[in-house]
Amino acid sequence: QVLDGAGLDVDFHLLSPKGETLVFDERKSDGVHTVETEDGDYMFCFDNTFSTISEKVIFFELILDNMGEDGQEQEDWKKYVTGTDLLDMKLEDILESINSVKARLSKSVQIQTLLRAFEARDRNIQESNFDRVNFWSMVNLGVMVVVSAVQVYMLKSLFEDKRKSRT
């Protein structure tokens, strides 16, 4: 997501380890991409070469799902479980509840991070608008002072006696 910069747009490229283009977006302000991965190094690039004057502030988040650790955690739990089938059932229920809470908390953190990015972009736009309004207000105030000074001078010149008086 582009948070700040002229146009709020940027090009995005995602390349696979084989060098194939997986995602290519031109001049987008935000986007969400899901890609099935394979082993290797991926390359992603945010390109702003089309805008040589302005710089951009970018927010991005890389989320890796199913890294194989969840299955290992469950196996670690099972080696500590001994006893009756009832105990096994209760521990598996507890494990399922804990994993459910963990997944929901993780999703909440992701959503809050995304909302913070939206808030940052909106705040940058508001500050830019505030600066623009202040600048044009000062220009308007300057014009009004100049016009009022000219009007006072013109009105004063109407009431001046331009005849030469002889004494």
TrEMBL record:
The keyword Transmembrane helix applies. InterPro entries: Emp24-like, GOLD_dom, GOLD_dom_sf. PANTHER family: TRANSMEMBRANE EMP24 DOMAIN-CONTAINING PROTEIN (PTHR22811). It is a single-pass type I membrane protein. The chain crosses the membrane at residues 135-155. It is found in: Endoplasmic reticulum membrane; Endoplasmic reticulum-Golgi intermediate compartment membrane; Golgi apparatus, cis-Golgi network membrane; Membrane. This is Transmembrane emp24 domain-containing protein 5. Belongs to the EMP24/GP25L family. It comes from Opisthocomus hoazin. Its main location: endoplasmic reticulum. It holds the Pfam family EMP24_GP25L. GO terms for cellular component: endoplasmic reticulum membrane; endoplasmic reticulum-Golgi intermediate compartment membrane; Golgi apparatus. Residues 1-64 form the GOLD domain. Keywords: Endoplasmic reticulum, Membrane, Signal, Transmembrane, Transmembrane helix.
